[in-house]
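so the lab meeting is tmrw and i was supposed to have these ready like two days ago... anyway. pasting both below. for each one the top line is the aa sequence and the line under it is the structure tokens. i havent really looked at them closely yet so no promises
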Amino acid sequence: MKAISDAVETGKKWIQDKFNTAIQWIKDTWNGLIKLATSWGTDIINNFLAGLQAAWTSVVTWFNNQLAWLKGLWPGSPVKHGPLKGYENWGFVLAQGIASGLMRGTPLVQSAMAGLLGGTGMGSMNISHSFSDGMASPPAFMGGGGGQPIIINKIYVQSPDINLDGHQVVQRLGPHLAYEMQVQNARRRPA
């Protein structure tokens, strides 16, 4: 009987050892997975952060480049590119450019006016534009130095009355407009 009892005891011990070994293996595997998962999570987050930092640097660089380009368009010391490039004294040069353009366009205006007035019997008006000497001698069309007076005929076309709901609009709006004008003028009078 002792042999049976020893065999049962040995079997029991063997089962306990195998069970404890299996439990230990599950514990070790679980703890290993937790350590690996923690490492994986840390790696994922660190790599994500590194990606964000790399992208952030390129975004900031792009944004700074765009700001530098915009700054180069506006008047500064000196303008780097754009329509004002080369204009160190940009205000003076810009005004000169506008004045030069106006002066070059004056013959076109004279030609257009002569064409418009050609049918009125006024013909050419001989408009002088001596702006190069400043305004020491005003041009003829400004009233100095002779020339012909300019007469402008205005033609007014009065439209027929407009009816709205069987009433003339003037009859309905007239009193309101007169009242508003009276109120507005009363507000503007000095005390």
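ok protien two:
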Amino acid sequence: MILRFKIFLFLFSFLFSSAIISQDLIRFKDCKAEIEYLIQNDSEKAFVLTDRLEKSALKRADSLDLLEAYNYYGNIYGKRHQKYKALEYYYRALNLKRKYSIKTSISNTLNSIGIIHHGNGNIDKALDFYLQAISTLDDSISDYQLTPRLNICKLYLDINELDKAKEEIENTNDYLKVISNKEETALLDNLKGVYFQAIEELDSAKFYYKKT
């Protein structure tokens, strides 16, 4: 009788804990979209939810949710201009993503690391990570290549390497002819305006600024 009771308690405990884990999985799957929204609008709330996601992922030994949490931390700290903390978490996310994630996700984090180095003035590192973000995709033609390509254009404009900026702008323009993306086209037009302003062709600069 005692043995049956112990077995019953064990089964009840197991089923109850499994139900809790299932509810957590559903809840945290839903909250990821909320975190992404809050990062742009309320970083404090985003931080609280990300902390919950991290703790749950560690408890469940869920590497996929954990890398998501680390990536969110990187985005939050980047938004707060705490660049070294952002880098710390992006690198943590990257280490896990190299094991578990698809290439587009790895590319996004490489690009995010490049942006932080770019903002810190570490131009060589920034360029290296932008190029890694592109090469990780194995030359596949997709929207995911556009952001690091545009960032390379901006990098060369920022350091006044105008010949290289022109070359990258032309290459990215050719790429956009294959990938139709209105938002990225507007960003490239703005960079064209910056380029023509830098070489003092003001009519061309105004033309591209107006297009954006």
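from a quick look at the 2nd one: Residues 123-212 form one domain. The chain has two domains: 16-101, 123-212. will dig more after coffe
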